[in-house]
Every structure is written in structure tokens, then in C-alpha cells.
Specification:
Helix content is 19%, strand content 28%. It is of the alpha+beta class. The strands form 12 sheets. Strands 7, 8, 9, 10, 11, 12, 14 and 15 form an 8-stranded mixed β-sheet that branches. Strands 16, 43, 44, 46, 47 and 48 form a 6-stranded antiparallel β-sheet that branches. Strands 26, 28, 29, 31, 32 and 33 form a 6-stranded mixed β-sheet that branches. Helix 1 packs antiparallel against helix 2, helix 2 packs parallel to helix 4 and helix 4 runs antiparallel to helix 5. The longest helix is centred in the first third of the chain and has 22 residues. The chain is globular. The N terminus is likely disordered.
Length: 812
């Protein structure tokens, strides 16, 4: 009897969609074959055609049918460990559809139940879409809607008496929610975390010269006029941006802003908070509104106006339109990867990604998206559908064109003479990776006992090259390996002691178009094969007539007392930086480069306020126009505490990566018993692979204590000193992490490891596929859909006792 009853329950639950179809949407239209919405953000709905839509009753019913059908595919079987969930789902379904005559409200509540019981992948965006469609129905379509009352309770649009019965008799069905119209608790939580939060919106505390700067064309909600407001703070250090949106009509923009989102960031500890106007409520233009009237934290989930951290992902929480004057001159860069303060079901800003290190491309997206500048990309996956669809694809021009005035296409920048085709490989790879699940959702840590075999060593990687180059960059070499560089098969450069897996730079004779450059590495007598060929490109084919695009000084944030800047440019060009020091004089310095992003140390240094910098690029005899000039500004009063990435250090480690730096600061590292280890300076907020072992004459040992500090303007700006956790035993070395590999990949991308560690990759049969260091490990064969790979890491003779295991994903 029990088996028959369970079977009947399955049939009843599955039949819900058929019942819904008979009563609702499908009397009039066919079901969606793919997800009906591309994105929901700032209260706007974007359809699969990249056009804003205003969902009507029929669209909402149809969309609900799609989501219910998708979720029912995850209903557990009677024999699964989650079988009891089946009975709960049936009980709740029966109660909901018996008590609620409004089918749209009933469907929305049943979707809540399915999400609660099944906890499907992508829970954040499913919840947001369901809430957004429900709010749209209640506030814009339903007659006599039930809205949040003065008691601050929201019954999801259901009549309170029925809502109470559902709550009491619904075996746990949650209906009543606290909407917290005055979000003072979240405001205080943010302030306690050091996030600067203004007292009110439309108040005098917002920057007077930046109040209401109009943004002409935005990614989402193109039927409104968006304004950018900025609020800056020195104590605590940080910035807020607000984006009121006024609906456009025949007479222009109205005076009621809805929605109105605010993001606030501490630029030293990198914590960020998100606020939004309550759904269905508007604020009058330029009329002061207390910050407590905005929603934040968990209230944003039920508010249904977008999953903030899905769109606002990456190093920089702000989605910046670089061609818009409203954004120019704003200091928006955090000192490291930003940390959102949002509900636990929302994406927690995964990343940064090393994916693009695996893809050779003459136009390099990760040359511009660096720490301290526009910021590094997030770890894209199915966990970030709105970032992938609404931000990445729109910025790269990979969506059907939206309505006029023009398509939005901000990535890559388009200075005269540039070609977007040069960036195609990087853009394609980011979009391809969006179809894979996140490694945190499908990968597992397992105990391993692989032998420390030495039968195979992965080849290194040669960076892309243009003609007339005299330097070659190589990545992926193991520490102390011998690396050799070949031009057309003849050895032209090399080193016997590699010390940086991310970039080794070699001088070579002047390269000509179609020269073939390769590299090998050798460790303990085991040679690798040849690297993939890097064929020298003729720059005049990519830039007809030799019209090189102007370089870009990146980051644009340059402080007085700094000594170095960085420049984005055509890879392997010769870069000349001109410094105008005013009364201090004028100077220039030229450097040959090996990649497309280069740090340059001008002769006039340390910088003073007002120093101006411009850069030009030269390949062979062709010279680019100058970059836009950038100026040094007053340095911050205080500096953030530097940190290590990852924060733990292990015995046998030879390199460390320092983060949370102030652009242009001078950093130093010492060890408690050894003393000073060394100094460095960097124009951005991170310094990778600082070599501590060479200075100390040995790798780090258990119990060593590192001290990391940074300073600007001795005698002026305070020095920030951070004590690092004691060096741990090598036996505590954790498993590394890789992003989910895709079918056809002949590499794995390392997303987390100890700097300088040896990374080994094995298949399900314990055959070693790869052995190298750095962010990308080349494999001896392409991966198939049947593969499962496990990665381990080691320092010297010590190897992690656990590995990270993940199945290869087929994106088709």
C-alpha cells in the first residue's frame, strides 16, 4: 500500500504542471523551450532577445509553468534518501491549491516550496526570478493587491487570513516575511564592518559636483533615465554609488525614482553593502530620504528586484560604463577582492579567475582587468547567470542589439585603430566557461596516495608575440627548473633556475613575422615536450597601415610618493612613458616588453601631486598616438593592512603573494628571527610570487613568522604592518582547487594553490596527465566527457594528503 501511495504522490505532483497548463497559460501559448528571462535587475526584466519586457499575466503564467516543470525534474524518487521530501511536497501542494484561488500566487508559493525542499543548483536566481514575477503581478497587474502592511509583514500577496492558515497548517510552509522597511539593523551592521554608509539619499553629504550625473545608455532598464550619484568618505575610507532611475515618457524623464539602488564599499578592507528601494515604492527626485527607508541584507531576496551579487561580481563591485563621463575621475578600486555582505543564498563573489591565462590571444582582456584598476574577472559559471548574460555578453556585444540609441559594447575599449577581433579568443572562453557549474558545487576533496612519479613534465607556455619583439615571456615553469627558449628550432635563451611560474622574461634577437617561438623545461633530469608554438604575428595585418591604438595607463589611480606606473598596450611593443613634473622638469623612459601589460619605473620619482604621465607604443617603426594623460593625486591618510593570498603559509614554501596593497606603495617582508627579507613596489594592489627563499637562503620552515608592511610618503602616510600566521607544517598542506574542466580542454586552470607549488593532475586510472606550476597546467591529452580528474600540490618533497576531484563537464 505504501508503494502504491508513493507512486500516486509522484503522479499527482507531476500532474500539477498538466493541471496548470489546462487552467492557465498554455490555453493560449506554447511553453518556453528555454529559460524565459535573460536577467532581472534594478526592477527591469530582460528577455532572451536582450530587449526589456513588461511581463503580463500570460507571460507570468507561462514562465511559472516553465520553472515548475524544471523543478519537478528534481523531485526525489521513493527510494532516494530524500524520499520523505516527496510527501511534504505533495502535502504542501494540496494545501496551497485548495486554499488559493489565484493561480499566479499559488504557483509562486509552490515554486517557493520546491526550491525550499529540493535546494536546486542556481537557487539564488530561481528565487529572484520567482519573487520578481510575483512582485510584478501584485504591484502592476492584480486588482486590489495585498501589499506589506504597517506591521512590516509581507504575506507574498496572499490575503492575511489565508496566509495565516497556510502558515499554521502548511507543515512548515513559510508565508509571512518581515520586510523591514526601515533597514536600520543592516545599516548598523555595515557601519560596524567599516563600510561608509550615508545618512540619507538626495542629501548634501553626497558629492556636490557629482550629484545626478546622467548615464545615457545602460545595460538594464533602457526605458528609464539613470543618474549616478557618488558619496566619498575618508573615515572610514570608501565610496558609495547610487543609481536612481526615472521612467522615460513622451515628455522626458519623470520625477519618481524607482528602483533606486545603492552600493557602498570600504576601499581598504574591501567589504561592500547593497541597498535597494522597496519593490513598488518610488522616491521623489532630489527629496531627502533617510537611509533606513532602503532595504538591505536578507530583505533584498524577497524584494525581487535583482540578485545584486550575480551582476555585481568581480574585483570591483561597481558595474562601470567607461565611456560615460559620469564615471570619470571616481576612485572606485578596492585594495583587493571585494567581500559582499548579502544573504547566504546569494553568490559570494567567487574568484578571481585564472581562466584567461590558458588562452593565447593577441588582445588580452586580463591585461586591462587587473587588480587595482578595473579589477579582475570573477570565476564565471552557472552560479553567475546574470553576470554572464546581462553584463559579460552585453559588454562584449554578444547579444542581439537592444533598441536605440545604440548597442552597448564596452569590452574591449575601442580607441582608433583597435580591433575587437583580437580579443575574440578571450571573450569566447569566458562565455564558454559560463555554461559550466562552479567547482565548489561539484568538486570534492578526497584522500590520495599517488606516487611521486617523475615520468612526465608538462611543457611551459609562451605568451603571444608581435614582430620586432626582443623579449619573450614564458609561464608554467616549476621552481628551479631549467627553461630553454627556441626561435625556429634553435635555442636562443634560457635559465638554469626558474623562480616565477607566472612570468619568466627572456631577451631574444629581433623577431620577424612568422618566426616560431617555443620553450621547454627540465626538472631533475626529466624534460618536457615543446610548448605550443607561438607564431610571431605581423602587426600590420592586425593594425592596417601600422596604426597602433594608444596605450592606456592602468590603473589610472596614481598616488604621490609612488615610484611606478603600469601601462596596457599592444603586446611586446616598446613603451615610452613621458613624465611632466612641472618645475621638477620633464623626462621619458622606454622599455621593451614581453606581454600587453607592463610596469614602468619613470626617472622622475618619487611622484609629487600633479605629475602627469603619458605613454606611447612602438612596434618596428610604427608609433601609436599618446595615451590619455593621468596625474598623481594626494595619497590616502591611512593604508590598509597587507595580507597574503592564500592567508596560510606552509613549510617548504619559497614564494608568497601579497595583497590588499595601496597602489604604488612600497612593501617589505621580514621574518621574526631572520630579519628583513626584501622590499618591492607595485602600481596595483597585489604583488604575486615574491621570492623569500632566495634572500633567506632556504624555504620557509614551520614556526617561521612573517611580517608584511607597506608605506607611502615616509613621515606623512602611516605605515601599515601585518603579522602573518606562523608557518604551518607541510603535512597541513591542503588540496589545490581547479575550475571545472570542459570537454576538449588539454589543460586545467588552477584557481587556488600555494604560490610556487608543484601541481600534479591524474585521471581516474591514476595516470598522471600534467605536472607543472602556476595558474595553467598543460596535459598530455585532451579531456573527454568520461574523464574525472584529481589534482594535488606539493612543496619540495612534501605533497598534500588530499586532492581535489571533479568530473569533466560537457557544455553541449
Amino acid at each position: 500500500m505504501r508503494n502504491k501511495s508513493t507512486a500516486r504522490l509522484l503522479i499527482a505532483v507531476a500532474a500539477l504542471v498538466m493541471c496548470f497548463v489546462a487552467l492557465g497559460a498554455c490555453r493560449r501559448m506554447r511553453p518556453f523551450r528555454s529559460e524565459p528571462l535573460l536577467a532581472v535587475g534594478h526592477g527591469a526584466f530582460v528577455g532572451r532577445d536582450n530587449k526589456e519586457l513588461l511581463p503580463d499575466r500570460g507571460f507570468i503564467e507561462k514562465a511559472q509553468a516553465f520553472y515548475i516543470s524544471q523543478l519537478l525534474g528534481g523531485v526525489p524518487s521513493k527510494t532516494s534518501p530524500n524520499g520523505p521530501a516527496l510527501q511534504r511536497i505533495q502535502q504542501k501542494r494540496t494545501l496551497i491549491y485548495r486554499l488559493l484561488r489565484d493561480r499566479i500566487l499559488a504557483n509562486a508559493l509552490f515554486i517557493d516550496v520546491l526550491i525550499e525542499e529540493l535546494k536546486p543548483p542556481g537557487i539564488a536566481h530561481l528565487t529572484m526570478y520567482n519573487n520578481a514575477l510575483r512582485w510584478r503581478y501584485v504591484t502592476k497587474i492584480q486588482r486590489n493587491p495585498v501589499l506589506p502592511g504597517k506591521d512590516r509583514k509581507w504575506t507574498k500577496g496572499i490575503e492575511p487570513g489565508i496566509a495565516q492558515k497556510l502558515q499554521d497548517d502548511g507543515v512548515g510552509t513559510v508565508v509571512f516575511l518581515i520586510t523591514s522597511v526601515r533597514g536600520t539593523e543592516y545599516v548598523q551592521e555595515c557601519r560596524d564592518a567599516g563600510v561608509p554608509v550615508p545618512r540619507a539619499m538626495f542629501s548634501a553629504e553626497w558629492d556636490m559636483d557629482r550629484q545626478g550625473k546622467v548615464i545615457e545608455n545602460v545595460f538594464i532598464d533602457r526605458g528609464s533615465q539613470a543618474e549616478l550619484w557618488s558619496f566619498t568618505s575618508t573615515t572610514p575610507p570608501g565610496v558609495c554609488l547610487a543609481l536612481p532611475r526615472y521612467r522615460l515618457g513622451t515628455g522626458g524623464a519623470g520625477n519618481e525614482a524607482s528602483p533606486l539602488g545603492i552600493i557602498c564599499l570600504n576601499t581598504q578592507n574591501n567589504k561592500a553593502c547593497f541597498f535597494d528601494s522597496p519593490n513598488g515604492r518610488s522616491f521623489t527626485r532630489n527629496v531627502r530620504v533617510d537611509i533606513g527607508e532602503f532595504l538591505g541584507g536578507v530583505d533584498l531576496v524577497t524584494n525581487g528586484q535583482g540578485t545584486c551579487t550575480d551582476c555585481h561580481a568581480g574585483e570591483n563591485p561597481f558595474v562601470v560604463h567607461p565611456d560615460q563621463p559620469a564615471f570619470r575621475g571616481l576612485a572606485l578600486s578596492p585594495s583587493g577582492w571585494y567581500i559582499p555582505s548579502v544573504d547566504a543564498t546569494w553568490p559570494q563573489n567567487p574568484g578571481p579567475t585564472n581562466l584567461l591565462d590558458a588562452i593565447g590571444s593577441p588582445g588580452q582582456c586580463n591585461g586591462c582587468h587587473v587588480a587595482g584598476g578595473p579589477g579582475r574577472f570573477p570565476e564565471v559559471s552557472t552560479q553567475l547567470p546574470m553576470y554572464c548574460n546581462a553584463i559579460l555578453r552585453s559588454a562584449a556585444g554578444r547579444l542581439p542589439p537592444p533598441p536605440p540609441p545604440r548597442p552597448i559594447n564596452t569590452m574591449p575599449p575601442h580607441p582608433p585603430g583597435s580591433s575587437t577581433a583580437l580579443y575574440t579568443a578571450h571573450i569566447d572562453e569566458l562565455i564558454r566557461a559560463c555554461s559550466a557549474p562552479s567547482s565548489s558545487s561539484v568538486g570534492v576533496v578526497v584522500q590520495v596516495s599517488y606516487p611521486d612519479d617523475r615520468d612526465f613534465l608538462s611543457p611551459p607556455i609562451v605568451e603571444p608575440l608581435y614582430d620586432c619583439a626582443t623579449k619573450v615571456a614564458v609561464r608554467g615553469a616549476r621552481l628551479t627548473a631549467r627553461v630553454d627558449v627556441y626561435v625556429n628550432g634553435g635555442r636562443r635563451a634560457g635559465t638554469d633556475r626558474a623562480r616565477n611560474p607566472d612570468r619568466l622574461e627572456f631577451d631574444v634577437p629581433l623577431l620577424r613575422p612568422n618566426d616560431v617561438v617555443t620553450a621547454t623545461q627540465e626538472y631533475n633530469g626529466v624534460p618536457s615536450g615543446l610548448s605550443p608554438e607561438a607564431r610571431v604575428r605581423d602587426h600590420r595585418l592586425d593594425f592596417p597601415g601600422g596604426r597602433l591604438p594608444p596605450p592606456v595607463i592602468n590603473p589610472t589611480l596614481i598616488y604621490a610618493c609612488a615610484e611606478t606606473i603600469a601601462v596596457n598596450h599592444v603586446p611586446t611593443a616598446v613603451i615610452t612613458v613621458e613624465t611632466d613634473g612641472g618645475t621638477a622638469g620633464h623626462d621619458s623612459v622606454s622599455v621593451a616588453t614581453s606581454t600587453g601589460w607592463t610596469t614602468v619605473v619613470p626617472n622622475l620619482r618619487p611622484f609629487q601631486v600633479g605629475y602627469s604621465f603619458t605613454a606611447t607604443a612602438r612596434i618596428c617603426e610604427d608609433v601609436s598616438p599618446p595615451s590619455r594623460p593621468e596625474r598623481a593625486i594626494v595619497p590616502p591618510v591611512t593604508l590598509s593592512l597587507p595580507s597574503l593570498s592564500p592567508p596560510n603559509v606552509y613549510a617548504g614554501q619559497e614564494l608568497v603573494t601579497v595583497e590588499n596593497l595601496t597602489n604604488g606603495s612600497r612593501g617589505s617582508i621580514s621574518e621574526a628571527s631572520f630579519g628583513p627579507v626584501g622590499e618591492f613596489t607595485t602600481p596595483v594592489s597585489t604583488f604575486p610570487n615574491f621570492d623569500v627563499a632566495t634572500s633567506m637562503g632556504r624555504p620557509l620552515s614551520a614556526g617561521d613568522r612573517l611580517v608584511v608592511s607597506q608605506r607611502l610618503c615616509p613621515g606623512g602616510t602611516a605605515v601599515a604592518v601585518a603579522q602573518i600566521l606562523p608557518v604551518a607544517q607541510c603535512a597541513e598542506l591542503p588540496a589545490p582547487r581547479i575550475r571545472v574542466p570542459l570537454v576538449g580542454d588539454n589543460y586545467v586552470v588552477v584557481s587556488q594553490s600555494v604560490p610556487g607549488a608543484r601541481i600534479r593532475v591524474y585521471d581516474a586510472g591514476s595516470t598522471k596527465l600534467g605536472d607543472g606550476s602556476g595558474t595553467v597546467i598543460l596535459l598530455r591529452r585532451a579531456l573527454t566527457g568520461a574523464d574525472t580528474v584529481t589534482v594535488v600540490q606539493g612543496l619540495g618533497d612534501c605533497n598534500s594528503l588530499t586532492g581535489f576531484r571533479v568530473s569533466v563537464h560537457n557544455p553541449l
